[in-house]
Design goal:
With 651 residues, the chain is of the alpha/beta class. 31% of the residues lie in helices and 22% in strands. A hairpin with a 7-residue loop joins β14 and β15. The protein binds 5'-O-[(S)-ethoxy(hydroxy)phosphoryl]adenosine (WTA).
C-alpha cells in the first residue's frame, strides 16, 4: 500500500528490542503460535515469583462453560514484589511515579524506595482497618499517586481492588460497591481537574446511603476542603497511613488469584465486573508494555489515561512499574490552562513515550499547531494511541506536527477484557499505516469471521475474534460466570468474540472498524446503549427510548437518543434537560445525549426487537440507504419517523 510509513531512524537508534523488523516479528509470532506454553512461561520469567510456574494454559475456550481457563496455576507471587520491591532494591533512587498536578508545574517525584515505603505503610494501615486477602476494596479517587499506592497496597494484602472512575455518579458507585461486596472504600476529600474541584468524598457519602457491607472509608486529603464525616467509619489517610510502619511482608498469592475487578459496559444490562488475575495479567501487562513501546531504562513514559479505566491499570500502574519504568501520572486535562498543556508537560519532563486517546488528539488538532510548536518535543520517540479508531487525518497530525516525523505511532487495539494490547505496531519494527493497528503481537491469534461463524482468509472484513487464550485475558465476570460465557463465547463457540469489526488488508494489517454491538465509544469512554435507555425510560413522560451512536468529528461517536413519549405528553426543553440530569445522576457526567429526536414509534422486528441498524442510518442522516426493511413489524413507523425528523425536533 502506498501510504506505508517506515519506522523513523530515531525510533530504531539505540533499540535493544529482540524484534527489530517484520522478519523478527514473524519469527516470534510463529514461535509463540507453535509453542504457546513455552512462549508465555518464558515471558512470565520477567516477573519476580516466589515459586515459578511450571505450566502455562490449563483449559481453554472449549471448556470455558465449565469454568475459567487458567495460566501459570502453580505459580506463587505477590505482584508488588515485581512492581515495587525488586526495583526498590536495584534502583532505589529512580523515579517510579512522576506526578504532574492540576496546576502546571505542581510536581511530585516518588522514587522506588519511597514508593516501597508508601505501599507498605498503606498495606499495614489497610490490614489494621480489617482488609484481608480475597476481600474487595473500591477505589474512588482522582489522579494522585496515592491512587496507585492504594491499588498496590490492596495487591500486597492479596485483596481485590476495583477502581471506579471519579466521574461516575453516586448511583453508579453504589451499584459497584454492592456488586462486588466491598468491605472498604478508599477515596479523597476532593479531586482536582481543569482548575475545578471534584467532590469525591461527598459522592462516596451519597453512594453509601442505604444497604452495603462497607465498614471503613479511607480518605486521602488532596485539597483540604471541609467534608462530611461519619464517625467510626471514616478514617483519614494521613492519620493511619503516615503513622504505619514502612515495612510489610507481602501476602503470597496464587497466580490465578484475582488482582482486580474492573467494571465495563456491554451491549445489555448493567456493567460487568471483569476479573483479572495476579500472574497472567501482570505477565501480560509487563510484556506488552516492554515490547510495544520498546521501553528503555532512561525512558520517561507518560500515559495520559485515568486510573479508573483499564488503560490506567495496565499502562500507568502495573505494566510500567513491573518494568521498573518512570511513569507519569497527570491530574489535569489536555486543555488546562490551555491546549498546550500536554506539550508543556512533554517539554518540562522530557517525556520520551507519550500515550493518549484519538479524541484528545482530534480536540488538540482543532486548536491549531501553535500550541504544539511553541514547546520543545525533541525528547519524544514513541507516540501511542488507544481507545477508538484513529482517523488518518488525526494520525497524520500526530505524526507530522507533534512528532515532527521523528516518532513511530503505535496505534494499540485492545479492551478491558483483554488486559493489555493485542494488536499494535512494535515501535522499532513495524512500518505503520495511518488508521491501522497493524499486526498482532506474538502470542495473539486474531481471526475474522463472517456472521455464520466461517473463518475468512486472506484480505477480508468481518467480526474480530481471537482463537486462543493469552495470559492477560479476563477470566470471568465477578459473580456471574454464565454471563461471561454468554457475552464472549456464545456467538462463536471455541473463540473469544471481541465485539469489534475489522478489516484485514493484503499484507495482514488490521483496521478496526468499531463496535458491531450496542456499545458506544464516546471520547474513548465505553458506555452501553442499554444503560442510557434504562435511565431514560425511568422518566415518567418517556414510554420508550432507543440510543445509538453516530460519527462525531471530535468525540469519535456522539449519542443520539430516540424518544417515544407517553400518550398525551409533549416534548419540551425542560423534559430534555431532565433527561440529561437523569443520565448524570444514574451514570455520570460523561453520559450525555448529543441529539434528541422525539418520534411516534420505534422501528421493530416482528419479535419486538428495536432495529438499531435503521436508527443508526437515520442518525447519520442516511435515511435514503435504509436497505431491507421487510422484517419490520410496522413499516409505517419508518415513514412516520422520517416526517418527524423533518419536523420540529424540539432541540
Ligand atoms: C475500541 C480500551 C480502534 C474497540 C483499551 C474496543 C479501539 C473498545 C482501539 C474497548 C484502537 C480500543 N483502534 N478501536 N486502537 N482501542 N478500541 O474496554 O471498539 O474501554 O472494543 O478498552 O475500544 O474499550 P475499553
Amino acid at each position: 500500500m502506498s501510504d506505508t510509513v517506515p519506522v523513523p531512524a530515531r525510533v530504531r537508534e539505540g533499540s535493544v528490542s529482540p524484534i527489530q523488523d517484520l522478519n523478527d516479528w514473524r519469527r516470534a509470532w510463529l514461535q509463540a503460535r507453535n509453542d504457546p506454553d513455552g512462549f508465555w512461561l518464558e515471558q512470565a520469567r520477567a516477573l519476580r515469583w516466589r515459586r515459578l510456574p511450571s505450566e502455562g494454559l490449563v483449559g481453554g475456550y472449549d471448556t470455558v462453560r465449565e469454568g475459567p481457563f487458567s495460566w501459570f496455576h502453580d505459580g506463587i507471587l505477590n505482584v508488588t514484589e515485581s512492581c515495587v520491591d525488586r526495583h526498590a532494591e536495584a534502583t532505589p533512587d529512580k523515579v517510579a511515579i512522576l506526578w504532574e498536578g492540576d496546576a502546571p508545574g505542581e510536581v511530585r517525584r516518588i522514587t522506588y524506595a519511597e514508593l516501597s515505603a508508601m505501599v507498605n505503610r498503606c498495606a499495614n494501615a489497610l490490614a489494621r482497618l480489617g482488609l484481608k486477602k480475597g476481600e474487595r476494596a473500591i477505589l474512588y479517587m482522582g489522579m494522585v499517586p496515592e491512587a496507585a499506592v492504594a491499588m498496590l497496597a490492596c495487591a500486597r494484602l492479596g485483596a481485590v481492588h476495583s477502581v471506579v472512575f471519579g466521574g461516575f455518579s453516586a448511583e453508579a458507585l453504589r451499584d459497584r460497591v454492592r456488586d462486588c461486596g466491598a468491605e472498604l472504600v478508599i477515596t479523597q476529600d476532593e479531586g482536582r481537574r481543569g482548575g475545578r474541584s471534584v467532590p469525591l468524598k461527598a459522592v462516596t457519602d451519597a453512594a453509601l446511603e442505604g444497604e452495603h457491607g462497607v465498614k471503613k472509608v479511607l480518605v486521602f486529603r488532596r485539597t483540604g476542603a471541609k467534608v462530611g464525616w461519619t464517625a467510626h467509619r471514616d478514617v483519614w489517610w494521613h492519620e493511619v497511613v503516615d503513622a504505619a510502619s514502612p515495612e510489610h511482608e507481602a501476602v503470597a498469592c496464587g497466580a490465578e488469584d484475582p488482582l482486580f475487578i474492573l467494571y465495563t459496559s456491554g451491549s445489555t444490562g448493567r456493567p460487568k465486573g471483569l476479573v483479572h488475575t495476579c500472574g497472567g495479567y501482570l505477565t501480560y501487562a509487563s510484556y506488552t508494555h516492554r515490547v510495544v513501546f520498546d521501553l528503555r531504562p532512561d525512558d520517561v513514559y507518560a500515559c495520559l489515561a485515568d486510573v479508573g479505566w483499564i488503560t490506567g491499570h495496565s499502562y500507568i500502574v502495573y505494566g510500567p512499574l513491573a518494568n521498573g519504568a518512570t511513569t507519569l501520572m497527570f491530574e489535569s486535562t489536555p486543555l488546562y490552562p490551555d491546549a498546550g498543556r500536554y506539550w508543556d508537560v512533554v517539554e518540562r519532563h522530557k517525556v520520551t513515550i507519550f500515550y493518549t486517546a484519538p479524541t484528545a488528539i482530534r480536540a488538540l488538532a482543532a486548536q491549531g499547531d501553535d500550541f504544539v510548536t511553541r514547546h520543545d518535543r525533541s525528547s519524544l520517540r514513541v507516540l501511542g494511541t488507544v481507545g477508538e479508531p484513529i482517523n488518518p487525518d488525526a494520525w497524520r497530525w500526530y505524526f507530522d506536527v507533534v512528532g515532527e516525523g521523528r516518532c513511530n505511532i503505535v496505534d494499540t487495539w485492545w479492551q478491558t477484557e483483554t488486559g493489555g494490547i493485542l494488536i499494535a505496531p512494535i515501535a522499532p519494527a513495524t512500518p505503520t499505516r495511518p488508521g491501522s493497528a497493524t499486526l498482532p503481537l506474538p502470542g495473539v491469534r486474531p481471526q475474522l469471521l463472517d456472521p455464520d461463524g466461517r473463518e475468512l482468509r486472506g484480505p477480508s472484513q468481518g467480526l474480530l475474534c481471537i482463537a486462543e487464550p493469552w495470559p492477560g485475558q479476563a477470566r470471568t465476570v465477578w459473580g456471574d460466570h454464565a454471563r461471561y460465557v454468554a457475552t464472549y463465547y456464545a456467538m462463536f463457540p471455541g473463540r473469544y468474540f471481541t465485539g469489534d469489526g475489522c478489516l484485514r488488508d493484503a499484507d495482514g494489517y488490521h483496521w478496526i472498524t468499531g463496535r458491531v454491538d450496542d456499545v458506544l465509544n464516546v471520547s474513548g469512554h465505553r458506555m452501553g446503549t442499554a444503560e442510557f435507555e434504562s435511565a431514560l425510560v425511568g422518566i415518567e413522560e418517556i414510554a420508550e427510548a432507543a440510543v445509538v451512536g453516530y460519527p462525531h468529528p471530535v468525540k469519535g461517536q456522539g449519542v443520539f437518543a430516540w424518544l417515544v413519549l407517553q400518550e398525551g405528553e409533549e416534548c419540551s426543553q425542560a423534559l430534555l434537560q431532565r433527561c440529561q440530569t437523569t443520565l448524570r445522576v444514574r451514570i455520570g457526567a460523561h453520559a450525555r445525549v448529543d441529539r434528541f429526536q422525539v418520534v411516534p414509534g420505534l422501528p421493530k422486528t416482528r419479535s419486538g426487537k428495536v432495529m438499531r441498524r435503521i436508527l443508526r442510518k437515520l442518525a447519520e442522516g442516511r435515511g435514503d440507504e435504509l436497505g431491507d426493511v421487510s422484517t419490520l413489524a410496522d413499516a409505517e413507523v419508518v415513514s412516520a419517523i422520517l416526517s418527524a425528523i423533518s419536523g420540529d425536533s424540539c432541540e
